[in-house]
Amino acid sequence: MHNVVISGTGLWVAPEVISNDELVVAFNAYARRFNEENAAAIAAGEISAVPESSAEFIEKASGIKRRYVVDKSGVLDPARMRPHIPPRPDDALSLQAEMAVAAAREALAAAGRVAADIDMVICAASNMQRPYPAMAVEIQGALGAGGYAYDMNVACSSATFALEQAINAVRTGSARVALVVDPEICSAHLAWQDRDCHFIFGDVCTALLVERADTAKSGGGWEVLGSKLATSFSNNIRNNAGFLWRCEDRNPDDRDQLFRQEGRKVFKEVCPMAAEHIAGQLGALGMTPAGVRRFWLHQANLAMNQLIGKRLLGHEASADEAPVILDEFANTASAGSIIAFHRHNRDLEAGDVGVICSFGAGYSIGSIVVRKL
What we know:
By secondary structure, this protein is an alpha+beta fold. It contains 10 helices and 13 strands. The protein has a domain at about 220-370: Peroxisomal Thiolase, Chain A, domain 1, CATH 3.40.47. The protein has a 9-stranded mixed beta sheet, with helices on both faces. Strands 2-3 form a two-stranded antiparallel sheet. The model has no long low-confidence stretch (mean pLDDT about 95).
């Protein structure tokens, strides 16, 4: 068994920004249009009117102020409300692969590695843009990496679940240098017409390089002390889109074909699960939450992170103890905790311990305990 380190991280940021104010203008125009076109049905009680949104509501409900997206014109068009993503020919690099290659190159540079050093690639995200060939294999080929590659999806926990697979592969010797990429195009599976969730997601891609400690070239990085995964089935976060919809004679615009959640139930159930998960893992390693220098938590909702931090530490976690990036990026599914780690780890000192944790649909929870070298 080999000691394992996270030796480099990378981040690709989508090219366009939507502020809460811009989003609200578009959503409210859609709401007024819908209510006018369906006035008779609304008056008859057959359907409900769409309530308008506000920037104040969004920030109070989530802590989100803006989000990055691959295309804002389509999202902000009240008659469309989804991004414009032009199709690409099969011989062109796909969008998710393009995002992942850019993030991977930054991670490689941080680790002092070249793509040819990689012998394992995992592409992990809440949604893949196609079933096959695997996005990971395309990314492997575009980078010029060797070894093997595969895709995986555990919704918002995809990055930490993939990270454990990479860690275990390197620890046991089946890989020497593993790459985990998380290309999240969340704007494409978000119901922008739904007031309760139209503000939640943004687009981004993260990358992590995992390798043997004794052969790492960076001379630093983060030693992996342990990883822990858990799942428990719930329908409270769900997206039914899939290849069977055409066989079910479904309308692809049916509401359940996009992200939906029972937000209050998720908050009530997931927060204690996540806190207990982290505390239990730390206990098994002979540690306590008070001994953790920094928590890089899943970036879904500010109130969730505050409650988890309070359960772990006995007080509301400060921005230094549990940094927040969702105000800028919004919820970026599996990439959120990795963005927090990427953006907020350079100020820590050798010996400092941190926890990367993500949680989401499934329910699923993944956590990685690391120590600064």
